[in-house]
Automatic annotation (TrEMBL):
Residues 5-195 form the DhaL domain. PROSITE patterns: DHAL. Pfam families: Dak2. This is Dihydroxyacetone kinase subunit L. It comes from Streptomyces actuosus. Transmembrane segments: none annotated. NCBIfam families: dha_L_ycgS (TIGR02365).
Length: 203
C-alpha cells in the first residue's frame, strides 16, 4: 500500500529531477516553444518541495492537492494549469484514504490524464505531454518500471510527429524532428514515480 510518505517522495524526486534536467527541457522548448519550459517547471516543483517541508499533508490525495496548488500558482504558461490539473484530479480521485493500492493510483492517474486531455484538447499523436502520459498509465498495471519505460518511449516517439496542439502547432511541419518538452517532462514525472516505488520496495 502507498501512503502519504510515498507520495511526498514522488513529488520530491520529481523536483530533484526537474531541477537537474531544467536546462535540457528549456533547450527542447527553444526551437518549438517559448524556451521557458524548464525554468517554469523548476520554479514550480521547487515551490512544491518547499511547501511539503512546511506542511504535513497526511493522505496521498492531500499531498497531490498541495502540489497542484503550488504548480498552478507558480508556473507560467500552459504548464501550470496542465500539471496542476493532472495532480489535482488524481488527488481528488484518491479521496481521503490514508493508503491506496497501485491499482487505485493507476485509476486515479488515468482520471488525471483524462482531465488534462479535456483541458488542453490534446489526444495521443498530437505531440504533447499526453504522448508520454497515456502509455505510462496503460503500462502501470505491469508496475512502475513498465510505466517509466512506456513514458520515456512515448516522449522519444514525439520527435517525428507534427505538433497539432500547443505553441508548437503554430510551426506546422517545422515542429517535426524535435522531441516535445512537455512529453519529456511528463516522462520525468513518471520516472520519479518509479523511483519512489523502488524505494518503497527497498530496492
Amino acid at each position: 500500500m502507498l501512503d502519504a510518505d510515498f507520495f511526498r517522495r514522488w513529488m520530491t524526486a520529481t523536483a530533484v529531477s526537474v531541477d537537474r534536467e531544467a536546462e535540457r527541457l528549456t533547450a527542447l522548448d527553444s526551437p518549438i516553444g517559448d524556451a521557458d519550459h524548464g525554468s517554469n517547471l523548476q520554479r514550480g516543483f521547487t515551490a512544491v518541495a518547499a511547501a511539503l517541508e512546511k506542511e504535513d499533508p497526511n493522505t496521498p490525495g492531500a499531498v497531490l492537492l498541495l502540489a497542484a496548488r503550488q504548480l498552478i500558482s507558480t508556473v507560467g504558461g500552459a504548464s501550470g494549469p496542465l500539471y496542476g490539473t493532472l495532480l489535482r484530479r488524481t488527488g481528488k480521485s484518491l479521496g481521503d484514504a490514508a493508503e491506496v493500492g497501485e491499482a487505485e493510483l493507476a485509476a486515479a492517474l488515468r482520471s488525471g490524464v483524462d482531465a488534462v486531455m479535456a483541458l488542453g484538447g490534446a489526444s495521443p499523436g498530437d505531440k504533447t505531454m499526453i504522448d508520454a502520459l497515456v502509455p505510462a498509465v496503460d503500462a502501470l498495471a505491469d508496475g512502475f518500471g513498465a510505466a517509466r519505460a512506456a513514458a520515456e518511449q512515448g516522449a522519444l516517439a514525439t520527435t517525428p510527429m507534427q505538433a497539432r496542439k500547443g505553441r508548437a502547432s503554430y510551426l506546422g511541419e517545422r515542429s517535426i524532428g524535435h522531441q516535445d518538452p512537455g512529453a519529456t517532462s511528463s516522462a520525468l514525472l513518471i520516472a520519479a514515480l518509479a523511483e519512489a516505488g523502488s524505494e518503497a520496495a527497498g530496492e
